[in-house]
Write a structure and sequence with these properties.
627 residues, 4-stranded antiparallel β-sheet, elongated, f41 fragment of flagellin, N-terminal domain, 4 domains, 13 helices, single chain, 22 strands, 4-stranded mixed β-sheet, alpha+beta
Length: 627
């Protein structure tokens, strides 16, 4: 009988020892790396959670990078906008000052400052982050605003603002310097003033005339073109009797000329002399009134009108926002006058109302939202039939969400919108809509720059599209939609922010326009009316730079992008918390506890020692020992 030697490598005991050694190796690796395994198969059943958590961590890292980049753009944009508010304050302070000393170029120190600040503002609006222009909307690779020199002075092929302003001033003043008014004396006892051409956008427009002149007959304003006349009828007015004439200027403001009959010598300013010859000749008084009115009109034309003309030239050149522009219409007053925001949407003739007007039950539908007319007690999307045009425009603006309120100017209604492509207005009363100056469906388009329609400008009667011949000051994106939506970023799984901006936004455009007008305008350093021109312009520029209720402000843009920044801050806070939770899940699924691993190693070492002892004893076994 023989006993075979023990085959260690194939024995169950040998396999157990090899398994323990492998476990010790794995545990030693876990102890040194802190990980359960170096491959997914060894991680266990919870590794699926770890894989999903790691994917979410990757997304968070991408969102973090996006938030960082967007914050850089927002911080730069906010710095730029803050610079714009400082520029506004600087120019407004200068325009509000009373110093009107003109230099050799016919400008004040404040105007020189405005010209310099205009260049600074253009530079700010062309701010870039990397290769991206911040105020170009979606056209991020396009310079936002044309060069300051080109905007003001033009190029070899296109006119700049200075040319547009000069043309407009010539057109508003007219050839005789009387603001397109024609003054005559039909009879020795009378005088007449009329507008030169019906429907012309230029010059002074006669709005109203009133008189306390004893024995005089005042006719008008009426007719086409509009005119009025005063006939003293051979009777001298009494001392202190007054003639008042109110004019509308090109910028929509009104000014009044008051002339008082006076027997004082010398004749006081703002008065006309009552004839004191023997015998008394009232026709001489009529001639004095005619002369005084002529002098007053020329002063008004060469001061306030020139300033108003400069302001309107700025609007013609810079204001190219998307809008629906109606044709000029009159109310049914006696005599008819251009509609205003106060004109009622219905009313009896004669009154400041449109004809035909809206009646109860009529509707206007704006972008799918219906406004209904009721007799009284309107609420929500209702309008009283006696409400004003401005009330209607306010309702329309609420629906469209425009950043630029709609306006009424010179009898023409302009419905402004941030999304020209989506504006759709229909009505059940097309006659009343026509009375507002619109066809059955208003057509919305981007307003082109406007130029005086013919040469010489002093006799022109129309404004025409100047796109082909005029510098385009804004070069960025001008498509539909909110400027904020031109730059969007996803900063969380279900969160996006909008932080775009455009240099042609109403608040920015109005400021750029006002500063350009003030800094570009110049006059004769020694002219009779130069001081009055600059004074009238300064007043208008100060008002233009003053924030008005309902108008977009630069601070509103800052608020919008600050909200985007706050949204990102909240998202970042959530993501930081999520990162900690996800890392815990991954660690629980993949990490090895040092204490537990050490305990298992100790247990395996004891088991291995015992196995080795048994193996050693078996290796020494012989027949003699066995027996």
């Amino acid at each position: 009988m023989s006993i075979s030697s023990i085959n260690y490598s194939s024995s169950v005991l040998g396999a157990q020892i090899r398994n323990i050694n492998q476990q010790l190796t794995d545990l030693s690796t876990q102890l040194s790396t802190g990980k359960l395994s170096q491959n997914y198969s060894g991680m266990g059943t919870n590794e699926g959670f770890a894989i999903a958590g790691r994917a979410q961590l990757s997304n968070i890292a991408a969102y973090t990078d996006t938030i960082t980049n967007v914050n850089v753009s927002i911080n730069l944009a906010n710095t730029a906008l803050q610079s714009l508010t400082k520029i506004r304050s600087t120019v407004q302070t200068g325009s509000a000052s009373t110093a009107q000393d003109l230099n050799v170029n016919g400008q004040t120190v404040a105007q020189n400052t405005a010209a310099a600040q205009f260049g600074s503002m253009v530079g700010v609006l062309n701010t870039q982050t990397g290769s991206r222009y911040l105020f170009s909307g979606t056209a991020v690779n396009t310079q936002s605003v044309a060069d300051a020199g080109d905007i003001i002075n033009g190029t070899t092929t296109q006119a700049g603002f200075k040319t547009v302003m000069a043309e407009r001033q010539a057109a508003d003043l007219g050839a005789n310097g009387m603001a397109r008014l024609v003054q005559t004396q039909p009879t020795p006892s009378s005088m007449q003033v009329s507008e030169d051409v019906a429907g012309s956008p230029f010059g002074l427009k006669i709005k109203a005339v009133s008189s306390t002149l004893t024995g005089a007959t005042v006719t008008g304003p009426s007719g086409s073109p509009v005119s009025f006349s005063v006939d003293l009828n051979g009777v001298n007015p009494n001392n202190g009797d007054k003639l008042s004439v109110q004019f509308t200027l090109p910028d929509g403001t009104t000014e009044q000329i008051d002339l008082t009959a006076s027997s004082a010598t010398p004749t006081p300013l703002g008065s006309f002399a009552i004839d004191a010859s023997t015998p008394v000749n009232p026709n001489n008084t009529a001639a004095n009134l005619n002369t005084a009115l002529n002098t007053a009109i020329q002063k008004l034309a060469n001061t306030s009108l020139v300033a108003a003309s400069a302001v309107v030239a700025g609007d013609n050149f810079f204001n190219t926002a998307s809008s629906a522009i109606g044709t000029p219409v009159n109310n049914q007053a006696a005599p008819p006058a251009p509609v205003t925001g106060a004109t009622a949407l219905s009313g009896a003739s004669p009154s400041d109302s449109i004809s035909p007007g809206f009646v109860a039950g009529d509707t206007i539908t704006v972008n799918g939202t219906t406004l209904t007319f009721v007799s009284s007690g309107a609420t929500g999307n209702q309008l009283n039939v006696t409400d004003s045009i401005q009330a209607l425009l306010g309702k329309i603006d609420q629906i469209t969400g425009t950043s630029k309120p709609s306006t009424v100017h010179g009898g023409s209604i302009t419905i402004n919108t941030d999304d020209a492509a989506s504006l759709n207005i229909t009505t059940s009363n097309t006659g009343a809509l026509s009375a507002l100056g619109f066809s059955a469906t208003p057509v919305t388009a981007t307003q082109p720059p406007l130029r005086v329609g013919s040469s010489p400008a002093s006799s022109a009667t129309t404004l025409v599209n100047g796109s082909a011949t005029t510098v385009k000051w804004y070069l960025g994106n001008d498509g539909p939609g909110s400027p904020r939506s031109t730059a969007m970023a996803r900063v969380d799984d279900a969160v996006t922010v909008q932080y775009g901006a455009q240099a042609n936004e109403d608040a920015i455009r109005r400021q750029l326009q006002a500063i350009a007008v003030f800094g570009t305008f110049s006059t004769s350093p020694t002219g009779q009316y130069s001081g009055g021109q600059v004074s009238a312009l300064s007043l208008r520029v100060t008002q233009a730079l003053t924030q008005q209720p309902g108008q977009q402000r630069i601070e509103d843009i800052q608020t919008d992008i600050a909200m985007a920044q706050n949204t990102m801050k909240d998202a970042s806070t959530r993501q930081t918390q999520a990162k900690a939770q996800l890392q815990t899940i991954i660690d629980q699924a993949e990490s090895a506890s040092p204490d537990q691993v050490a305990s298992e190693i100790l247990a395996l070492q004891n088991a291995l020692q015992a196995s080795y002892q048994v193996t050693s004893n078996l290796a020494q076994l012989s027949l003699v020992k066995f027996l």
